[in-house]
Structures are given as C-alpha cells and as structure tokens.
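Pasting as-is:
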Amino acid sequence: MLSRSMFENSRPGGISVLEIVDGREPGEPRRFVPLNRTELQGDVSGPLAALRLIHTYGYTKEQCDAKLEAVYRFPLPGDAAVTAVAVRFGDVEIHTELKERGQAEEEYEEAREEGRQAALVTRESPDVFSLQVTGLEPDQDVVVETCFVVRAQTAGPGWILRVPLTTAPRYARSDEIESRHAAGQPLALLRDPGHRFALDLKIAAADTARSGTHEIVTSEEGDGLRVTLGQGEVIPDRDFVLSWQPRVAEDRVGVELLLHDDPDDEYLYFIALVVPPGTHRRGSGVAREVILLLDRSGSMYGAKWEASDWAVKNFLSGLGERDTLAFARFHNVTHWLHKRPKNASEKVIEEALAFLEREDSGGTELGVALEQALDLERTKGDLARHVLVITDVQVSDAGRLLRLAQEESGERERRRISVLCIDAAPNSFVATELAQRGGGVARFLTSNPEEEDIATALEEVMADWAEPVHTGLRVEVDRPGVRAAAHDQSEAPDGWSAIDLGDLPAGRPRWVVGRLLRGEVRELEFRLSASGERLASQSVRLPDEGVHRPALKALFGARRIAELEFLMESHRLVEDFREELARLGYDPDDILEGASNGRRKVYTENVAAEGRDALRSLLVREAMDFGLASGETAFVGVRTEKGERVEGTVVVANALPADWSDDILSSGLMAALAAPGSVPSAMPRGPGKMARSLFGASDESLDSVYYAMPPDTTARSRPRRVSPGRLAVFGGVPAFVRSEAVLFDSSKDKGTALPEEVRLGGVQVEFTGDTPEADALDPELCLLVFVGDLASPRARVKLADLVRQGGMRPLNVLRRAGDVVS
C-alpha cells in the first residue's frame, strides 16, 4: 500500500500528487496546461462590485490528441457571493443550474461517465472554489464565466478591493480535518503554472485609482475610470489589490441609496452608504466619553504588551479637553487612574501616561473590570460613549460577560463595548458576541511577527474611535420589519424601522445592506439621523417597471449564508442554536423541530450533529432562494449530446505565492512552513501627502532612521523598554520622486548589514538641529516599512506620532533570510 503522507510532494490532508518526470529544467512550467487564461471583468460602484471571473481552456491537437477533464481550485474573496455560472464549449453554450451539492456532483459524475460535456463549480471554503470541466477536446476553446458580487472595504476616505489570484497550502487542525472548510487546499503548486491573469474593470465616479501589487493603466471612461494591467497578462502569484478615491465635494454628511426591486419575491433590497463630510476640522466633532480597559495579565507579555502601550499613548494624545477619560489596568485586580471619568486635560493625560508605565500582572479578570467600567458615573451631555477593551480574551466566564453587555444595551445613555483582541489563538466567539451585544465592534490582531506588525494594526483600528463627526447614527425607513445584515435594528415610532450604525468617524464612510417588504406603496422615505437630529433624508419612488440591481440581493443573501455556515461549524449543541437563530430572524422551533427524531441523544458528538443537520437543511433552502453557491450548493451544467468518454484528468496548478520559498514545491507542508523565504521583494516608501517643506525646502532634515533589533524573545517574556541594538539605515535629506522617497533598500544598500534572521523590534527617528513640533508636521507624512512583500507595508508609522512619542516606536516584524527590508 502506498503511504499517503511520506511522498515529498504530498499536499495537506495526506493526498499525494503523482507527477511525470519528463526531463524539464528546474522551475520550467509543465509543457501541457489546458487552462490558458483567467480574466477579471466587471463594474464597481461605491462599495458594490459586480464581477466576472472568466476561465478560458484550450489546447491543440499537437499538444494533446485526447479528450480530457480539467480540475482547477481557484480563489475568490471570502465574502464573495457567486450568483451564476455560464459555460461555453466552442459555439455551444450550456445551461447551468444551482442545485444541492450532492445532487450536482452526481449529475456531473454521470455526465462524465457518459461522455457528455459538463462543468461543476463547488465551494470548498469561504474563499476557495473548485472548477471541474469534462469533455475538453483539441482545437476547441471552453469558456467558464463565474459571476460574483463582492463589497469593497473602506480605506480612509476611499475604497479598496482585494481579489486573490492563487491559493496557498493551509494548516488544518486534526479536529477540523473533516470539516467542509478544511478542503480549501490547492491541488498542485508551480512557480509558473503556465496560465496567465488579465484585468478589465470600470469604476464609477472615481477620481484616481492605484494598485500596490500590479502595474495598472487607467483611462477616463464615462463618469469614472477604466482599469487594465500595464503588462497585459501576468502570472497569478499574488492578490490583486486596487484602491481608489471617490469624488468628494460635500462639506456635510450625505446618504446615497441603491435599490433592487426583486421580481421573484416580495422584498425590496437596498444599500445605504453614509458619507462623512469631505473636510473635518479637529475639535468640531462630537466629544467622547472613553473608558479604556487595558489587559495586564501574564498572557499579554511581550510584543502584545509593547504594541498596546504604543497604541494607548497615541490614542491618549488624540484626546481633547472636551473629552472625558477613565482608564484602568486590569489583571487579578482592577487599578483605576480615577474613580470617575475626568476631562482629558494636559495634566490628566500626563497622569495617564505615567499610570500606563506601571508594571504589575496577574490573571485575566475581564468581567470584574467591565462591570466596574459600566457602573462608573456617566458624563452629562451628548457624547460618543465607548468602552474600549484591549485584551486577548482568554477567559471562560462568557455567560456573565454577555449578560453585562446585554443589560448595558438597554441603558438610555448607552456605552458601546468594543474589543481589540490580540492573540494568535483568541477566544474569538466571546469577543465577537461581547461586541455584538455591546453595540460595538470586535477586531482581531495577531502577535505573530510573520503575519502583521501589531502596533500598525492597532493604530488603524483605534482610528475608528477618533473624534467622530456624529454619534448615535441611524438609518430610518418608513416601513416596519426592516432586516439589516450585520447590524442591530429596531422598530421606531409611526411604523418606521431604525438601523443602528454606531458613530460616524471622520473620513470613513459607513454602509448597510438590508431588505424590507415591498408592499403596495411605491414611495419610500429614508432618513439619516444622529442622536435625534435629522441629518439628511431621501424620498424614492419606485418606477412601475421596477429598479433592478440583483447584486444587492446577493450581498444580503451572502451575509445570511455566511452566518449560517459559521454557526454550523461553531460546535454548539441544539439548544445553543436557538438564540442565534432568533437573532438572525428565524423561528428556532420551526428550524429545529424534529432534529432529534423524537429521541434524546446521549453522546456529545451525536447531539451536536443534530443541530448541524437541521442548519444544513436551512442553509440549502436559503442558498437556493438567493441563488447563491455555498458549501452545500453548487452550479452544474450538462450538455445533452453524448460523446466519447474522457481519457484522463488534468490537474491545473496554482501559482506558488510570490513570497513563498520554492521548497514548498518539493517538500511536505510542515517543512515548507518552517523554511525561510527565499524570494526578495519589498521597499518602504513614504506614500501619501509628503511634506516637502519638511524635507529639502527648509534646513530641517532627518539625521537618521534606525531599525532596532532585539534578540528573539518568547511571547511571554517581559516587555523590553529599551532595545539592546540599533542599526542606522538612513541619514540626510530624503530625495523625493513626486510624493515618495526611498530611505533604505537592503537589496541595494549593501553597506548596511541587517542580520538575515532577525525580529525588527522598533523604528527610531532623530533630527539634526531642533526637533520640529508634532503639530507642525503634515499629519499624513508616513514612514512605511516593507519586509519581504512589495505589495503591502508591514508597518505604517506617522512621523508626527513618532515625534509626539519621543521618536521611538515598537515594531514586531520578523525578517527571514532573503527578505528585502526597506
């Protein structure tokens, strides 16, 4: 019997990949690849992207004189909603249908055995799909077009769209190996898989667009931009990331609406986009009451401790005397700076900074600290009230924590509870539920220096709690029973419904997608309010022929399907499903009725399986109703004409990600994960609004930029306040090209010897002459640190923050052998 795990090229899950050794040179692609090209096309409007991923297969008789099946595992964004699949064999287009996955797989297998041409698209994990095409013939192009909808993410005042182009091996825990999501693995990997990627996108109402991952060409088209690749076609070995800036002309809050009047059901779907003013003067927004809870338990030692200190210092420096602050460090005991919130005067901020430096530690008594925080005297006035908890949530008293949040949600002057969860293996369920019931948000950051710089991530997250433009933001609709995806909703007076959007930060739009019963009235009114004040309103009259944007329905449905899929994999018992089903708007009794078949199960595994089976039926029903692919549904198309049976199956390889070592191509997964990267890529540049008045136009210049290099430490070691080693990497006046200047590039600056294996523990800046005041610097002037990846900076450091905090800022970034640092 062949071993399933000892072949050098075994992939995760123990499935061996047999290859023909044909005398190719190392790194040379396979000579026969049936997939020629993948192209991403579509239209983007605001946060809504309706896209098509087109796979073109084809080969000549000289290449292969045989009828074949091809199998390819390709990625899509994790929140993508696949709405349709079209298949064309030469000039013949076959119809595809969405069916329950088991049935779709049976129909495809039957077609393959009978020699019919067919295609099957299945979802293996939220972001990985399988495409099987049978009946490929020489000299005949086969085109498979997968249509999907995805939403862009906010990036400051603009938008960012990330589309993955390849799939890397993933580690699966032993207790997850049988789950559906563990199947999202590549079938094969090659440095050059032999097929290429192309792009053709249209972005409405965009002023500028850029990509940090690919060279792009933009041209004006209509009221927006058309975006293509500068090189025409490229190897799909990295994510494609596109960012763009919309046109902003208003100096007031606005609301934009898109509607879909679905002809197939009784619902009207909508997306409401709330856009903050184009300009915002600091101090003109809503004052804040901030209660900051900082975890000082033993599990926070190391990089988590250092990064949270930096983030807290930056956050404190952004408070004004209109704001009030309460600050506590907690472990076994909760230590408060003051017994009630105080105005954030210069004296109070100085006291808070000194309070932050005290080092004591113990267990994680989060519940005690949170209860004390919620019981503090409430500051009078119209304020944005937040409890911000920075912790790893390694606690077990979830029941009482969630009870505190639930009770607080009913208070008239409600404090929103948000969690910044820092850990490689966090208690994500408790963090998510605490924020959900507390009306805030949960953000998850890792302390792993190979994945992200935690201080950079914390800065970006805490920017959401900077001075808001408005507090208590709500979208109100003149219909009862409105259902919103991922937002709390409630009934309002006069038969209206209200959707809670929280606070509106400066420079960051908010959006919500929802649905309502259409009814007989063709007119709708939407209102935007904040703390009872009406900010904007918009009346909409539906045309008799309706308004059709099916992407909105897909977005709404994708969110509900994702909630059900994650609920299925949450390892809960039947009774534990009830509350979550009710929260999602389902009748738990109707869904779970008959799950036990009249007999009470005894063993835990069987009890849990009952709930999953009931949810699986609901998931299939919802996916079919919304017309979306899911883990339990698939698109299948079969040609009626029979032909000759296929003579073999060809696996289409994924491209090895650009920053992965070639060792993964010839060794097992665990060895590959342990192997240092060998492909250089990178460069820290300073994009954005760079202040030339600081560099060059005046006599102020950077004396030096340092990377601090502490020896590697464990996650639980005591935090280091002073780095034992520094290396100067730049000195002088930066030479700008447009708005960017490269200060250091380890691939070119050979005289500066960075160790091959090192954890970069900090960055320090010193000035010749007098150090400029932080407020005198351009607030967008940044140092970017790249390590091994040219596309995305590992750290983003605002120079004003560096100056404000004494010129030193912690990093937690791992540099492996061969990684370019810049």
